[in-house]
Amino acid sequence: MPDTATVFNIAASEEVAEQGRLVVDIGSVSVGVFRFKGQVYAYRNICPHQGGPACQGRIINRVRENLNEQKMSQGLSFDKDVMHIVCPWHGLEFDVTNGIHPGDSAYKLRALEVVETDGRIHVTL
Ligand code: FES
Questions:
Q1: pLDDT digits over 74-89, tens only?
Q2: Which of 64, 85, 86, 97 lies 20 to 30 Å from 20 when distance is taken between CA atoms?
Q3: 26: buried, middle or exposed (CB in 10 Å: 19+, 13-18, 0-12)?
Q4: Nearest residue to 58 (alpha-carbon basis) of 29, 28, 90
Q5: From ligand 1's centre to the CA of 71, what distance in Å?
Q6: Fold of 7-124
Q7: Dihedral of CA 25/54/86/7: which sign?
Q8: Which of 56, 87, 100 maximizes ligand 1 atoms within 8 Å of its Cβ, making it the mutation to test the pocket?
Q9: pLDDT at residue 1 greater than cutoff 80
């Protein structure tokens, strides 16, 4: 990894579809880029749990348990407003918009600066 921050032109915008992902290697650094609600997000492809390739896991909407007034479960549903990345090694989930595990903010993917301009996606390392 370089000593100073460098901007890398890594992909065309259309290579990262809505609710999609692109994993690229920038030198020896693996980076995952995601798109949700039109916005792009980038993270180091290293899970904070045990170092798994978190960015290569399943992409799903957050699962919520629906409770009635007595706090009894009424079943599960997908939250269309929250998208998670699921690490393929042990299943920790991370909010794609901030990289944080929803149950324990100590588990957080390392976010990278990402800019989309003129149909290209640029990541800073
Ligand atoms: S390494 Fe990602 S959940 Fe364990």
A1: 999 999 999 999 999 9
A2: 64
A3: middle
A4: 90
A5: 31
A6: Rieske Iron-sulfur Protein (2.102.10)
A7: negative
A8: 87
A9: no
pLDDT confidence tier of residue 4, bands split at 50, 70 and 90: confident
Atom of ligand 1 nearest to the CA of 52: 1
For the stretch 92-121, pLDDT in tens is: 999 999 999 999 999 999 999 999 999 999
3-class DSSP state of 14: helix
For the chain, which residues make up each domain, given as ranges?
Answer: 7-124
First to last CA, the chain: 8
Rg, the chain, Cα only: 16
